[in-house]
């Protein structure tokens, strides 16, 4: 099963379209916040299920949850924007809570910088920002492949030059 992962779209429909094209066929999409309402556009253009969480730029009056737990391919995915877990200073809180929540994968955004890290069997995955990258990175999104043998294959997709 392949899952598209996107974050920090900040209202850019162009970035959403690029991510859809880069990811190819997927079973669903996960949006890790900051302009989570771009998820409705994503669902509209793909006709796929889209799970989303609110980020720090989404406003306190918005109805999206700040944490979501998705079961897919016998894996438990914790989806969060990350701003409530201090991710700009490290992923220690994500590691702690990921273990407490018995997650196999933690997907977050907020930093606008892509990351793939494994620690004690837990995958920490930030797809970067599809619209406003930081830290010298390119606009990116992610692909999460849940393999039949139980392994997880994360991948970062460059939205400017897919061959880079």
Automatic annotation (TrEMBL):
The keyword Hydrolase applies. SUPFAM superfamilies: Metallo-dependent phosphatases. Its cofactor is a divalent metal cation. GO terms for molecular function: hydrolase activity; metal ion binding. Its EC number is 3.1.4.-. Keywords: Hydrolase, Metal-binding. InterPro entries: Calcineurin-like_PHP_lpxH, Metallo-depent_PP-like, PdiEstase_YfcE_CS, Phosphodiesterase_MJ0936/Vps29. Belongs to the metallophosphoesterase superfamily. YfcE family. This is Phosphoesterase. It comes from Lucifera butyrica.
